[in-house]
UniProtKB/TrEMBL annotation:
<feature type="binding site">
    <location>
        <begin position="488"/>
        <end position="489"/>
    </location>
    <ligand>
        <name>FAD</name>
    </ligand>
</feature>
<keyword id="KW-1015">Disulfide bond</keyword>
<dbReference type="Pfam" id="PF00732">
    <property type="entry name" value="GMC_oxred_N"/>
</dbReference>
<dbReference type="GO" id="GO:0016614">
    <property type="term" value="F:oxidoreductase activity, acting on CH-OH group of donors"/>
</dbReference>
<dbReference type="InterPro" id="IPR007867">
    <property type="entry name" value="GMC_OxRtase_C"/>
</dbReference>
<feature type="binding site">
    <location>
        <begin position="79"/>
        <end position="80"/>
    </location>
    <ligand>
        <name>FAD</name>
    </ligand>
</feature>
<comment type="similarity">
    <text>Belongs to the GMC oxidoreductase family.</text>
</comment>
<keyword id="KW-0732">Signal</keyword>
<feature type="domain" description="Glucose-methanol-choline oxidoreductase N-terminal">
    <location>
        <begin position="287"/>
        <end position="301"/>
    </location>
</feature>
<dbReference type="InterPro" id="IPR012132">
    <property type="entry name" value="GMC_OxRdtase"/>
</dbReference>
<dbReference type="Pfam" id="PF05199">
    <property type="entry name" value="GMC_oxred_C"/>
</dbReference>
<dbReference type="InterPro" id="IPR051871">
    <property type="entry name" value="GMC_Oxidoreductase-Related"/>
</dbReference>
<dbReference type="GO" id="GO:0050660">
    <property type="term" value="F:flavin adenine dinucleotide binding"/>
</dbReference>
<feature type="signal peptide">
    <location>
        <begin position="1"/>
        <end position="24"/>
    </location>
</feature>
<feature type="binding site">
    <location>
        <begin position="528"/>
        <end position="529"/>
    </location>
    <ligand>
        <name>FAD</name>
    </ligand>
</feature>
<keyword id="KW-0274">FAD</keyword>
<keyword id="KW-0285">Flavoprotein</keyword>
Length: 552
């Protein structure tokens, strides 16, 4: 009887220690960001106004794009969500899981959806987009991305754009016990060389950048708005864009359509028209779900499909909503016998065979019984940590599609990603999950095992463990399919060469571009947020240079 009581005391002490660690890791007060001076509720905007650039989506690419264009032009940035700054769940690492779990249909910063594959997922619905709700990992794209993306890249300008982003929102994380152990385990498992701290995509093990600073405060794409020229920019929050306004450029049948503005709706149901000035453009930065959805609702998409919804066809575009991808995530989770810090992704192992191995340790609220005969109910909640090892595959090659669920833009479209429909993806998953097995067998993981009877030491898994025989191809393939989840890196739906050209212009429609991950047919490196922030800055600079050259 002595051993169970001892174990119970150890567990209670462990949980109380966690609570103290989490409580002491609160970010210090920071001054309000300067961009709040030009952010307004959409209800405050006139029923009609004119701009040089109208950007739909104040997310990971939309914010840097707006900040850049505002240096030379009058810009309106429309965001369907609110401001994340000041929300404790959004501003701290501890709020990562609650933000994803506490989602509602129309108002929460994270908008939940479940694909037809049965995998739960989420979209950002807040200024800064998914960069305001994600795990904060920052790493530049791999070199293959530039050659395979279908765009004509100026790599000097790419690097300058990355540096512009990094100066404002990227920090070097401080590794503690779980992340340090994973780093060492990756090296023991042969994921070498060790590249130290690096923002570049390099084969081996490295510490990547983080958008959480040393005090634990999140920085997102919204912070890039601090670069904006204040007199030239307005940001409307709680502004749901319902459709793009199109008009024929010439008054005869078959003439090319041009975007002339957008219609958006505020929280009170009031409608507003944002219209373009001469030579202006509408820029969609609503993401891989929002941009194809808005095109379809605006009559740009497959003619038979739009007609079935009763949507007037403005331009027949058969590939809108097609070639939609999501990088599958697979892994294991354990409850460790020692206290762990709360950490999101900081270390990554990049293998030569196209698998990326990452880790996190999440502090989860532990609910004790409301009434207990023997244990007094604590006045404060206790916390339990779950440590996770996960792998994401490069690509992927498997693709799916998006279709409307409603003509209400606030309702999520119906999405299917077709995970592992391409056999190459399953082979890469097997490679990645076997590498997780190698890490679990490394000496670096010994401290995270429980001591069992007769001296044996084992992990306590939360959810499925890896198959015992990891050389069995069929079992490993079954594990990949059975445990698939998302790492929230979905992309495509308006890919280059099918929907947009290499300058991000919609093929067949004037004055309309897409600047976001919906144009990607491949995910850029280990995490797309660095590349999306760079993209916003990059395209903005190219447009300014292009218009300056034309004026000359």
């Amino acid at each position: 009887m002595a051993r169970p009581i001892c174990v119970l005391v150890q567990q209670i002490a462990f949980l109380v220690l966690f609570y103290e660690v989490v409580s002491s890791a609160r970010p210090q007060h920071q001054p309000d960001p300067s961009y709040l001076k030009f952010v307004y509720n959409a209800t405050e905007f006139p029923s009609e106004d004119y701009y040089d650039y109208i950007i739909v989506g104040g997310g990971t690419a939309g914010c840097p794009l707006a900040a850049t264009l505002s240096q030379s032009y009058r810009v309106l940035l429309l965001e369907r969500g609110g401001v994340g700054y000041g929300n404790p769940n959004l501003m701290t690492q501890e709020g990562f899981l609650p933000t994803l779990l506490e989602a509602d249909t129309f108002n929460s910063p994270a908008q939940a959806f479940t694909s037809e594959d049965g995998v739960p997922n989420a979209r950002g619905r807040v200024l800064g987009g998914s960069s305001t709700i994600n795990a904060g990992f920052y790493s530049r794209a791999d070199h293959d991305f530039y050659s395979k993306s279908g765009m004509d890249w100026d790599l000097k300008l790419v690097n300058q754009s990355y540096e512009w982003v990094e100066k404002e929102v990227v920090f070097r994380p401080e590794l503690r016990n779980w992340q340090s152990a994973v780093r060492d385990g990756l090296l023991e498992a042969g994921v070498d060389p060790y590249n130290g701290f690096s923002l570049d995509h390099v084969v081996g093990t490295k510490i990547g950048g983080s958008t959480f600073d040393r005090s634990g405060r999140r920085h997102s794409a919204a912070d890039l708005l601090s670069y904006a020229k204040h007199v030239n920019i307005k940001v409307a929050v709680y502004a749901s864009v319902e459709r793009i306004l199109l008009a024929s450029t010439v008054a005869f049948p078959g003439s090319k359509q041009s975007a002339i503005g957008v219609v958006y709706r505020d929280q009170r149901g009031g409608y507003h028209h944002a219209m373009l000035r001469e030579n202006g453009e509408v820029m969609l930065s609503a993401g891989a779900i929002g941009s194809p959805q808005l095109l379809l609702l605006s009559g740009i998409g497959p003619r038979p499909y739009l007609s079935s919804w009763g949507i007037p066809v403005a331009y027949h575009h058969p590939y809108v909503g097609q070639y939609l991808y999501d990088n599958p995530r697979n892994g294991i989770s354990i409850v460790p016998p020692i206290p762990l810090e709360h950490s999101l992704i900081q270390v990554v192992g990049i293998t030569e065979k196209g698998a990326y191995v990452e880790a996190a340790s999440n502090v989860i609220s532990f609910a004790s019984p409301t009434r207990s005969v023997f244990v007094r109910t604590p006045s404060s909640p206790l916390y339990l940590t779950v440590a996770t090892l996960m792998e994401k595959i490069i690509g992927p090659l498997s693709s799916g599609s998006l279709r409307l669920a409603s003509t209400d833009v606030r309702v999520n479209p119906i999405v299917r990603f077709n995970y592992f429909s391409n056999p190459t993806d399953i082979e890469r998953c097997i490679e990645g999950t076997r590498k997780i097995g190698d890490i679990l067998r490394s000496r670096s993981m010994d401290d995270f095992k429980f001591r069992e009877w007769f001296g044996a030491r084992n992990f306590r898994f939360v959810g499925p463990a890896l198959p015992v025989d990891q050389s069995d191809h069929a079992q490993m393939a079954d594990f990949c399919r059975r445990t698939v989840s998302t790492i929230w890196h979905y992309h495509g739906g308006c890919v280059v060469g099918k929907v947009v050209d290499h300058n991000h212009r919609i093929i067949g429609v004037n004055s309309l571009r897409i600047v976001d991950g919906s144009t990607f047919s491949i995910s850029p490196g280990t995490n797309p947020q660095a590349t999306l922030m760079m993209l916003g800055r990059y395209v903005g600079l190219k447009i300014i240079r292009e218009r300056t050259r034309i004026r000359r």
